[in-house]
Amino acid sequence: MDSAQNPIANLKVQVSASTAPLDLKDRLTNQLVRIEKVVGSEGYSLEYDREVEYIKFMLTLPFEKGTQDILDLKRAGQILDQNHYGLKSAKDRILEYLAVLILNAQSSNKMRSQVLAFIGLVGSGKTSLAYSIAESLGRKIIRIPFGGLGSVRELRGESRLKSEAESGSIMKLVAQLGVNNPVILLDEIDRVAIESRSDVMGVLVELLDPEQNNGFLDHYVDYPFDLSKALFIATANNTANIATAVMDRLEVIEMPAYSDDEKIVIGKNFILPRALKESGLKEGLIIIEEGLWPQVVRPLGYDAGIRSLQRHIQTIVRRVARQVVEGQSGPFQLTGSNIGQYLN
After folding, report:
1. Widest distance between CA atoms in the chain
2. What are the helix (H) ranges across the chain?
3. Tens-digit pLDDT profile for residues 238-262
4. pLDDT digit string (tens) for 8-19?
5. Which of 31, 40, 43, 56 is nearest to 2 (CA)?
6. What is the topology classification, in CATH, of domain 260-343?
7. What pTM, to 2 d.p., does this model score?
8. Which of 305, 324, 314 is nearest to 273 (CA)?
9. Measuring CA to CA, which of 46, 178, 273, 315 is 20 to 30 A from 172?
């Protein structure tokens, strides 16, 4: 009995000390009192485990905890230029968007603006721009992939009446980050499974509407959580499968295709240095002849984005990494005569 009661007593202290709303604290305390009464009764163990797990999860929710925003437009521009080559029109729109957020924050302490939606082909930089926005504001970011999303329960969670219930991805990730004002990236919202598209679009309307998202209800949490401090950013390949009600809440930024010349600059100055660093190789260890870059950029035909370019450079770096581990010292000069062994 004692071993079961001590954890409950500890949870009572944690509930009392938490920053959860008062009515929620009262509810959690009452649940703990009820658990105490059934401890030791037949079949209590299963209910005890479920309730304790739920209360522990609720104590991780950041009802009052957020990060301090960095409201510096010049710094944001520097981060965008550092992380992304070209994309001038998209970056200008982002800076205009951030300027509105900054003015709103200064006048009303609320970061309100339209929800940005980056629309464009695979590899055009949509997702990475969202991460740069989060970095520029000094906010944490969570990414929720919508590709193939088969049930709205994956977003909203399931009722605790079900034995295997758990929270949805939104509240689960918010709890993991521990802040109530993250950037929430809704990635590829056009790729939701057909059978659940209508329900998911309904949840998106709620999430993106500032009049509704201040009381988002996850079925597992079963208590409204204020998501109005979060910044939502969406991405999609196209808008054909996005509900009109969702589109009405989005400020669309069309992502342009990269030219081969732009991709060469990106490959040289962004992707190759990053790939070397991630692989533990020294900068400058791989030297690609200038005339070979068009072949690295487009060995198999046209690609509007940079996803293929990333794969090709990562392939080159992996093969050099193997050579280094096998004892070769480099530097490794890629020429017309040996490029085949690194790319094929």
Report:
1. 79
2. 2-17, 22-38, 44-60, 73-83, 88-108, 126-137, 153-156, 169-177, 197-208, 244-247, 260-266, 272-278, 293-297, 307-325, 339-343
3. 999 999 999 999 999 999 888 888 8
4. 889 999 999 999
5. 40
6. Helicase, Ruva Protein; domain 3 (1.10.8)
7. 0.83
8. 314
9. 46
